[in-house]
């Protein structure tokens, strides 16, 4: 059984869902340490002249992602941050072919109240899983009492969920201790970002996967 492990990023990019398609179990590493410079509380969407960040305001601290709190009192201009995010998405994607199909559901998500970043991120991730019609078992690293670190933590997680193959991101070979994979084998993701027609001229890779959803109505690749 092939297992992938990934942090619960905000509005993940297409490679996140490509990894899902090639896995039997997808483990959300929800107790990984929060990294302000990563994609756990932000991601990028396409604009007329390139792209822009959407960043969820959070109480930044060196604690696990599942303990990070959202600063719901923060406004962007005169709007709450979540209303501003939705209106920014709607403004840039309102003319894309499939935005209207998902507008109401996305509005309900952004109208919701979330105290923790993990809860907001998982609602968005599950929205995209459903929209892309991905059949995947989701598990969480906090469901298992694992005290190991780094590569050993990966191996122990795969074992804990009953897997025998770890499906790693392409950069895994640069930091993992491969000698620890004794009874667990490793496969590396081979993801080439697809090029498709966006709603503005040119192509910007590595946008949030909502870009592909609103422009194509489906994933631009198959398993």
From TrEMBL:
This is WbqC family protein. InterPro entries: WbqC. It comes from Methanolobus sediminis.
């Amino acid at each position: 059984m092939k297992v992938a492990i990934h942090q619960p990023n905000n509005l993940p990019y297409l490679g996140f869902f490509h990894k899902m398609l090639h896995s039997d179990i997808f483990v959300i590493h929800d107790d990984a340490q929060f990294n302000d410079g990563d994609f756990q509380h932000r991601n990028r969407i396409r604009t007329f002249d390139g792209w822009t960040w959407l960043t969820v305001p959070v109480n930044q601290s060196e604690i696990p992602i599942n303990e990070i709190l959202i600063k719901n009192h923060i406004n962007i201009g005169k709007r709450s941050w979540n209303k501003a995010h939705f209106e920014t998405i709607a403004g840039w994607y309102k003319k894309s072919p499939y935005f209207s199909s998902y507008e109401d559901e996305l509005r309900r998500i952004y109208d919701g109240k979330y105290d923790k970043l993990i809860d907001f991120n998982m609602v968005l991730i599950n929205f995209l899983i459903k929209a892309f019609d991905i059949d995947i078992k989701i598990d969480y690293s906090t469901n298992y009492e694992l005290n190991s670190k780094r590569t050993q933590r990966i191996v122990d997680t795969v074992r804990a969920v009953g897997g025998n193959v770890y499906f790693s991101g392409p950069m895994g070979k640069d930091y993992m201790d491969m000698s620890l994979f004794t009874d667990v084998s490793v496969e590396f993701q081979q993801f080439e970002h697809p090029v498709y027609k966006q709603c503005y001229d040119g192509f910007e890779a590595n946008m949030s996967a909502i870009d592909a959803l609103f422009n194509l109505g489906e994933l631009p690749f198959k398993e």
